[in-house]
Amino acid sequence: MKVLVTGANGMLGQDLCPILEDIGCFVVPTDYDTLNILDKDAVDKRIKEIHPDLIIHCAAYTNVDKAEEAPEDAEKLNAEGTENVARAAGSIDATMICISTDYVFDGTKTTPYLPADEPNPKSVYGLTKYKGELAVKKYCKKYYIARTSWLYGINGKNFVETMISLAEKSLENGNEIKVVDDQKGCPTWTVDLVNGILKLLNKPYGVYHLCGDGETSWYGFAKEIFNMSGLDVNLKPCTTEEFPRPAKRPAYSVMQNDTQTGALLRPWQEALSDYIKLRKEKV
């Protein structure tokens, strides 16, 4: 199978491409330097030339807070860029997998969000990602929209690495670390997300939630990171109001991770344990 990947140099793409190659796919990795998704004509031409069986769209504007300051930049990448890719994918009848986010929801539920639940984004980032979802539905007959959350991986900036870095500094200066405890979600390792993406290929087209199984708060997530890393830090919970950010986060963005045939991804604690072991091997 020939697979074109956008955003191949990103945190997810760097784990995705080697795994696809390992299972025998012919992978065409692209990023801004080789495929500018904002250039509609270039996208059309490249995708028709390559004629992939599958397009996995990972390219995105992911700086949630900066999107509030530069909404036009987020709109271009997440909405217009995704529309360009979706239109080209539909023109050659390729299957498209679009990576989306839990931030399409407003966080007012108290039970896990289902794929069929109506999105109601409250941030620029969430809104532009939802617009991308709508473009995929409009132009592609064969599509998977894969919503994920709280993503971390070995090849990019993420919450796990931020917490470990803060912990190491706090052990030197004795400062406490405060982490928000009133936002709940599902931590997801990029490698587990890739495995979930591969499972989609055997399922009906549509919208799916691919996130670590179970739920926790950012504080609970940090606590597990420190425990598994053997770091004894002065960790304290705080509220969202105590730690204001430009972009509004959903208070509850837990998503249902299972289908009728079982969980798509394993419990988030198992994935985090494997990630911590992997990063220790690389240090």
Description:
The structure is a single chain. By secondary structure, this protein is an alpha/beta fold. It has helices at residues 11-22, 40-50, 64-69, 71-91, 124-139, 159-173, 190-200, 218-229, 268-282; strands spanning 2-6, 26-29, 54-57, 95-101, 143-148, 151-152, 177-180, 184-185, 188-189, 206-209, 216-217, 235-238, 258-259, 262-263. The strands form five sheets. It has a six-stranded parallel sheet, with helices on both faces. The chain has a two-stranded parallel ribbon with strand order 6-9. A two-stranded parallel sheet has the order 7-12. Helix 4 (71-91) runs parallel beside helix 5 (124-139), helix 6 (159-173) packs across helix 8 (218-229) and helix 8 packs across helix 9 (268-282). The longest helix has 21 residues, at 71-91. It is globular, with a radius of gyration of 19 Å.
- Can you count the helices? 9
Q: How much beta, percentage-wise?
A: 15-25%
Biggest sheet, spatial arrangement of strands: 2-1-3-4-5-10
Radius of gyration: 19 Å
Helix/strand class: alpha/beta
N-to-C SSE string, H for helix and E for strand? EHEHEHHEHEEHEEEHEEHEEEH
Average pLDDT taken over every residue: 96
Question: How many β-strand stretches?
Answer: 14
What does the overall shape look like? globular
Q: Give unreliable regions as ranges.
A: none
Helix share, percent: 40-55%
Q: Summarize the main sheet.
A: 6 strands, parallel
Q: What gap, in angstroms, lies between the N and C termini? A: 35 Å
